[in-house]
Amino acid sequence: MKAGIVVFPGTNRERDMAIALRAVTGRDPAMIWHGETALPDLDLVVLPGGFSYGDYLRCGAMAAHAPIMAPIRRFAEAGGHILGVCNGFQILTEAGLLPGALLRNGALRFLSQDCHLRVERGDTPFTRNWHVGDVFRAPMAHGDGNYIADDATIRDLEDSGRIAFRYARPDGRVDESDRQTNPNGSIKAIAGVLSANLRICGMMPHPEDLVDPLMGGEDGKPLFEGLVEALVR
Amino acid sequence: MSGTTGQKPVDEALAREFGLSAEEYGNVLSIMGRTPSLTELGIFSVMWSEHCSYKSSRVWLRTLPTTAPWVIHGPGENAGVVDIGQGLAAIFKMESHNHPSFIEPYQGAATGVGGILRDVFTMGARPVANLNALRFGSPENPQTRRIVDGVVRGIGGYGNCVGVPTVGGEINFHPAYDGNPLVNAMTVGIARQDRIFLSAAAGIGNPVVYVGSKTGRDGIHGATMSSSEFDEDALAKRPTVQVGDPFVEKLLIEACLELMATDAIVAIQDMGAAGLTSSSVEMAGKGGVGIDLDLDAVPQRERGMTAYEMMLSESQERMLIVVHPDRTELARAIFEKWELDFAIIGHLTDTGHIVVRHQGRVEADIPLDPLADQAPLYRRPTAPAPAPEPLGPITDPVGIEQALIRLIGCPDLASRAWVWNQYDSTVGGQTVKRPGAADAAIVKVEGTSLGLALTTDCTPRYCRADARQGGAQAVAEAWRNIVATGARPLAVTDNLNFGSPEKPEVMGQFVAAIEGMGEACRALDFPVVSGNVSLYNETRAPDGSSVSILPTPAIGGLGVLDDVSRAIGLAMPREGTVILVGATHGELGQSLWLREIHGREDGAPPAIDLAAERRNGDFIRQQIEAGRVVACHDVSDGGILVALAEMAMAGEAGCVLLAPQSGMRPEAFWFGEDQSRYIVVVSDAEAFAAAATSAGVETRVLGEVAGDGLTLPSGATISKARMKAVNSAFFPALMDD
């Protein structure tokens, strides 16, 4: 699998993502500068976390208009696989590549803590190494992760199986109204969503920061291992 | 020469307004041989401020030990540099931003983080961890909530955005910090030992380059403000507080590190306190050269700025670099790629003067040697503090169980999760022990087996009772916290926060604290490699008198693990024997038990025997290295039972406790704050005890791991759920969250 990580001014989790990808692919991912107007030959494009352009406008709003986004759109249209984590998820929604938006956390404070995610479908390139209902741990670190979309969009996402992950208790129970379980107040406790072709995934928590027992666990590793298996050529 | 740039005439009255004494102004006149211009007076006043010149503290700071075989650069550079092995160096420093954080808590704290980050990456290090030592006023004070909220948001807002994990620190509350909170920010970075950058300028004719943000009118005379007491007009000083832009800082870090990978840089320094003035004066002064600045070339955010304003501006996220002339365009290309301002604003000369030109006029022309050499240096009068009265006989009015519950819920011991959870502690993917998981935060050095152990420590109430003991204790506790993770302590940075040096009793505290710190540093081979002094931490009491903060010599400690996978935490494991290491005499003077149960802050602080400290700590580290210890926690605030409660709350199990030491009152055993002690959990208690005996270290079995709470010798069990509920209540209640 050839992976590339897009670096915007203010991106700050590109190194974490590179470590996770290197761990499963055995090689360095390409680092792609935001000002580029073409992508190298890739199987996976990753938009990592951070504060692109300082996030002084809406999170991700400036990055969605960066030069690199034009070839990324073409990559998506051609059926390419894209993972957006945290700021990367925000950028994908701002770019219209994923539905919905991410508002300020319900408690109006930055949240840096572990959360538990329940896998909502297990047959996508991002989730194939889990089963539906599996629960895994991931660190979250964001101020704007409160997922929202209009009723019709939510219905469509649910009906078409495009919710990838939900915030849950360690035992898998989902409780949208419980601040412990659904810390940022996301609608339907949605933590990650998929595009219609299931090839673009956006999520707020950071699986890339939990791929080494030394850092507290390998809960995030199945996501990257699954991508390698799905995208090997 | 223009002496009339501003509206006011330059005279002794204006010099006083700028914070210079009559005598200091007299020295300015004799150095210059004429009346200085407004810009020149501004340069003298900030360079000779307490903040920049350390005029009251320098003679005492020199007494601290600063060398060891592993120290690469001690005090005098932008930050301290120590050898951590494998050709790498850790670069670190702690610095205060106290005054700004009272006036405008968010920006004060945010720019504190930004400033200390620059001190570290200016030396060539990628910042890998931030810590913060915070002191707030009484929780009952209506201002406290506003200040806590702003400071925590500010630290998070800046650190989270630049992508440096905030991994540790400490928080105290005390009425002595009402109106004068302490915000001490520490940054740790990693660099290759052969790529460390210093600030001494060299090469006559070499260009002087300005990079980063544009210069505005913010922060003018910030260094002077930080060098005076607060008065009722403190909040009117808001314009002297700088405004931070962490996004630009992030770009600046990446651009500087990219430039540092080339051979373009001769010298580099950030523009911190006193901005362009201190950076240019210090770089030229250290290099023994002159410097000419052309202010017309300085990138400016506002129109019509005068030379005086530009030289004294403390606008954030700016650096000054001397580059090799044939690498100027390479450097420009890097900064343009990162969309940062880049301007050649001057060059080095052989005149030995700083010459500042603006709009065709020479606005300042000052000889650098006397500006540095004749900077004021004071040996201020000191008054010795009376020795604290030992604590007399005392009763236990509430019992052990109730006392524990009250202690773990009190402001100084309550869970800090509400604060930590607003700081990104995992960015970078190297955080091995997050806040609260071990006595020191553990951060892996990417791409190696090395780990850094990081902590900040100080017990201000001990320092007030006995500044010498308190100074020693702060160093010893930092050392102990590093040892408890299995790391080898290397060096410290100090952040000395005190009241007005013009009060003999405050100077007495200052001198005594430094003596105590020096003793501990020497006994523990734990030298001071960088630091910062913050004086004039005073507020006005309602009756008009000036009230000093508690003496607070905050210590930032750094240690290294050759194999980071061997680091241990404090969480109670599922099984094992719980053993106390170190002697217990039941010292309740200045203890939190005394304060929380009796409402008293008296007695002598616990004594420190530095030889025992060293012996116990070396023993603990050897046992951890040998793999004989499963968990370890030092015994500090609140004593043994609080330490056990912290281990149980962080862990998977509790503990069934044996009876306390005979011949000692139970509360003195469980809550005494005797120093140099650790609680360990081991799987082979006999082997551990035998090793201790042969090392001459006292141990005592406290109990066995069992259940999920603490079972007291009385048979009563305090469940983990109950402890956690009490422990986690304080911050959300204070902050109404």
TrEMBL record, chain A:
Pathway: Purine metabolism; IMP biosynthesis via de novo pathway; 5-amino-1-(5-phospho-D-ribosyl)imidazole from N(2)-formyl-N(1)-(5-phospho-D-ribosyl)glycinamide: step 1/2
Catalyzed chemical reaction(s): N(2)-formyl-N(1)-(5-phospho-beta-D-ribosyl)glycinamide + L-glutamine + ATP + H2O = 2-formamido-N(1)-(5-O-phospho-beta-D-ribosyl)acetamidine + L-glutamate + ADP + phosphate + H(+); L-glutamine + H2O = L-glutamate + NH4(+)
GO CC terms: cytoplasm
Source organism (scientific name): Gluconacetobacter sacchari
EC numbers: 6.3.5.3, 3.5.1.2
PANTHER family reported for this sequence: PHOSPHORIBOSYLFORMYLGLYCINAMIDINE SYNTHASE SUBUNIT PURQ (PTHR47552:SF1)
Compartments in which it is found: Cytoplasm
Quaternary context: Part of the FGAM synthase complex composed of 1 PurL, 1 PurQ and 2 PurS subunits.
Identification of the protein by name: Phosphoribosylformylglycinamidine synthase subunit PurQ
UniProt cross-references to InterPro entries, sorted A to Z: Class_I_gatase-like (IPR029062), PRibForGlyAmidine_synth_PurQ (IPR010075)
Gene3D superfamilies: 3.40.50.880
Record function comment: Part of the phosphoribosylformylglycinamidine synthase complex involved in the purines biosynthetic pathway. Catalyzes the ATP-dependent conversion of formylglycinamide ribonucleotide (FGAR) and glutamine to yield formylglycinamidine ribonucleotide (FGAM) and glutamate. The FGAM synthase complex is composed of three subunits. PurQ produces an ammonia molecule by converting glutamine to glutamate. PurL transfers the ammonia molecule to FGAR to form FGAM in an ATP-dependent manner.
Signal peptide extent: none
Keywords: ATP-binding, Cytoplasm, Glutamine amidotransferase, Hydrolase, Ligase, Nucleotide-binding, Purine biosynthesis
Primary location class: cytoplasm
Record-level GO BP terms: 'de novo' IMP biosynthetic process
SUPFAM superfamilies cross-referenced by the UniProt entry: Class I glutamine amidotransferase-like
Molecular function terms from GO: ATP binding; glutaminase activity; phosphoribosylformylglycinamidine synthase activity
Alphabetized Pfam families for the sequence: GATase_5 (PF13507)
UniProtKB/TrEMBL annotation, chain B:
InterPro entries found in the cross-reference section: PRibForGlyAmidine_synth_PurL, PurL_linker, PurM-like_C_dom, PurM-like_C_sf, PurM-like_N, PurM-like_N_sf
Gene Ontology MF terms: ATP binding; magnesium ion binding; phosphoribosylformylglycinamidine synthase activity
Annotated protein name in UniProt: Phosphoribosylformylglycinamidine synthase subunit PurL
Family membership: Belongs to the FGAMS family.
EC number per UniProt: 6.3.5.3
Binding-site list for Mg(2+) 1: 95, 532
Binding locations of Mg(2+) 2: 119, 270
Quaternary structure and interacting proteins, as annotated: Monomer. Part of the FGAM synthase complex composed of 1 PurL, 1 PurQ and 2 PurS subunits.
Metal-binding as UniProt keyword: yes
GO terms under biological process: 'de novo' IMP biosynthetic process
Keywords carried by this UniProt record: ATP-binding, Cytoplasm, Ligase, Magnesium, Metal-binding, Nucleotide-binding, Purine biosynthesis
One Pfam family named in its UniProt record: FGAR-AT_linker
Catalyzed chemical reaction(s): N(2)-formyl-N(1)-(5-phospho-beta-D-ribosyl)glycinamide + L-glutamine + ATP + H2O = 2-formamido-N(1)-(5-O-phospho-beta-D-ribosyl)acetamidine + L-glutamate + ADP + phosphate + H(+)
Domain PurM-like N-terminal: 76-191, 438-559
Major enzyme class: ligase
Function as written in the Swiss-Prot or TrEMBL entry: Part of the phosphoribosylformylglycinamidine synthase complex involved in the purines biosynthetic pathway. Catalyzes the ATP-dependent conversion of formylglycinamide ribonucleotide (FGAR) and glutamine to yield formylglycinamidine ribonucleotide (FGAM) and glutamate. The FGAM synthase complex is composed of three subunits. PurQ produces an ammonia molecule by converting glutamine to glutamate. PurL transfers the ammonia molecule to FGAR to form FGAM in an ATP-dependent manner.
Residues covered by the Phosphoribosylformylglycinamidine synthase linker domain: 14-55
Upper taxonomic lineage: Bacteria, Pseudomonadati, Pseudomonadota, Alphaproteobacteria, Acetobacterales
Active site (UniProt): 51, 97
Gene Ontology CC: cytoplasm
Keyword RNA-binding: no
Binding site for substrate: 96-99, 118, 242, 314-316, 534
Origin: domain of life: Bacteria
Limits of the PurM-like C-terminal domain: 204-358, 574-709
Subcellular location as annotated: Cytoplasm
Main subcellular location: cytoplasm
Pathway given in the UniProt record: Purine metabolism; IMP biosynthesis via de novo pathway; 5-amino-1-(5-phospho-D-ribosyl)imidazole from N(2)-formyl-N(1)-(5-phospho-D-ribosyl)glycinamide: step 1/2
